[in-house]
Amino acid sequence: MIADINDAQGSAMDGCTARLQQTRFHWLVTGSAGFIGSHLVQALLELDQTVTSIDNFSTGHHANLQEITAAVGPDRARSHRFIEGDICDLALCQRATDKVDFILHQAALGSVPRSLDEPITANRSNVDGFLNILVASRDAGVRRVIYAASSAVYGDYAGLPKNEQTIGRPLSPYAATKYINELYAGVFARCYGLSSIGLRYFNVFGARQDWKGPYSAVIPRWIRAMLYGEPVIVNGDGESTRDFCYVKDVVQANLLAATTSERSALNDVFNVAVGRRTSLIQLLSVLRCLLAELGIAYARSEPIHAPPRAGDVRHSQADISKAIAALRYEPRYELSQGLREALPWFVRNLTPEALSNPF
């Protein structure tokens, strides 16, 4: 049994941190060379946990693993065993889950546009790979699987804020794969007793987020454009809204979900966000102000509007009351706070030298 971490004074996350500092568990993080996965590995190592991780570098980067080592130091880095491989390889998943207590499953092809271009590839990674993780977890007796679900499952449901009980029809292959993940997790709970919790991420941002290529997210893509005086391309009229969530709040949600003793939270899904909407035009204004604070010149021209992207939802805002009640999740970063903390990383890594030798 996992001890109750929520009796400690202070926030649930303070209690979680105190508990993990006293007890070492073995964790598996999939997608560890990616944006969110690398932050999870770093947080676990900073808490003196034992970590195995997997990545095939289809979207992850060696530089993210190097940043983990630099951040935690060589002594703590020795508690990290990295496996280069693909979660679509069941035998590899079975080796990686040996003697693992908790799994934080982040590996996926996470782009709506890419899933529209490559639906078979998206299904292979996001569905077949996830099924392999579930099978390996069942066979290894893993205590709990925490998996990256997605706000994309809300699809064409227009109601706001989005609550976990009501979803619409998927608008992309990516959304369909993430909904299938939730269905499979429920089946494995009922048929095999495998405990899991799904975290429906909204628009996560932060350091190490990829800025390259046609599938990059809006925040890193715009930061790069503004730093280089290039046009800022806004898909649609700019009035679409998103619930932007800083990556450190996503780390918090994962650790709380993995260690919660609240039985009612098991085999369920939770929104992970801040619970507020920001339009794309508002986002552009915030980025400009924060770059100005750093004394950095940027493009002041009006944004260039392009057609809306296929598969994108018009408005997105999370109801996080369920995560607050069951997981005691407490987002600590508003959009501007998270951007202020993350921007120095982007400025440092988006120099001409960095771009000429990417990752």
CATH level-4 homologous superfamily of the domain at 12-204 and 245-275 and 318-332: NAD(P)-binding Rossmann-like Domain
Structural class estimated from helices and strands: alpha/beta
* Major sheet: arrangement of strands: 3-2-1-4-5-6-11
**What are the secondary-structure elements, in order, as H or E?**
HEHEHHEHEHHEHEEHEEEHEEHEHHH
Beta-strand percentage range: 15-25%
CATH fold description of the domain at 12-204 and 245-275 and 318-332: Rossmann fold
Given as residue ranges, the uncertain stretches (5+ residues, pLDDT < 50) are 1-9, 353-359
User: How much helical structure, as a percent, in the residues?
Assistant: 40-55%
Could you walk me through the main structural features you see in this protein, from its secondary elements to its overall organization?
The protein is α/β, with parallel strands linked by helices and 359 residues long. The chain has a domain at 12-204 and 245-275 and 318-332: NAD(P)-binding Rossmann-like Domain (Rossmann fold, 3-Layer(aba) Sandwich), CATH 3.40.50.720. The protein has helices at 12-22, 35-46, 62-72, 74-77, 90-96, 112-117, 119-140, 173-192, 218-227, 247-259, 280-293, 321-327, 335-349, 352-356, and strands at 26-30, 50-55, 80-84, 102-105, 144-150, 196-201, 203-205, 233-235, 241-242, 244-246, 268-272, 278-279, 304-306. A seven-stranded parallel beta sheet has the order 3-2-1-4-5-6-11, with helices on both faces. A two-stranded parallel ribbon has the order 7-10. α8 (173-192) links the parallel β5 and β6 (196-201). α5 crosses α7 (119-140) and α11 crosses α13. The model is unreliable at 1-9 and 353-359 (pLDDT under 50).
